[in-house]
Amino acid sequence: MKNMRTKDSRTQLLLMDALAARRQEMNEFTKELVAIPTENPPARAYPACVRAIARKLRQLKLPCEILDIPAAAALRRPYLGKSDGHAVLQFIRCSYGRSSYGRGKKTLYFHGHYDVVPAQSPAQFRPRVHLGKLIGRGASDMKSGLAAMIFAVHALNECGIELDGRVALFLVPDEETGGAAGSAHAPGFWAPTASPCSRPSPLAASSGTLIAVRYPCE
Prior knowledge:
Elements: H1 2-21, H2 23-34, H3 46-59, E1 65-70, H4 71-74, E2 88-94, E3 101-113, E4 128-130, E5 133-135, H5 139-159, E6 164-172, E7 194-198
Parallel strand pairs: 3-6, 3-7
Antiparallel strand pairs: 1-2, 2-6, 4-5
Helix pairs in contact: 1-5, 2-5
């Protein structure tokens, strides 16, 4: 038991060191996402956000799939497909081959959403740091969480951590209006042996995951 605790402590330190080395990159990526006004309703700027996330995943050597779901088929909502001229909802999946991390039959999904509630002012999409905290629409819920999940998977890969199973990513829209056009469709795209999802938050750390990421910024 003591040896196991020692190994777990070393693993945690290794991962936290890997994340600390990319702290500035995580902060800048979160700012980039906050600046994209993915308001829901009315489902604005989704494609731009998906492109930004996919670009970062590929930079981190995490190939991803972008899954298009016709908005009309996903849910009968008059604003979908009209706001920015896009008629599809896009999910981002990293779950197969080099797109996920680890080996084994079971898969733990880091599952999050990229839409945010409507802003009171366009200024809320201009991220800023105040007293060490990142301020902006969606900074907490949950664009910092998306950055945390993405860089957590990258850190596992970079450190070569041994896992009894796999960790994958699945990111969706529509959480702010109930998830019927987002998370409700997720199980159809998950691996057959998927495990319960994890949703990190900068406000609460979960002991059920390997990594808890706090965001202050510097």
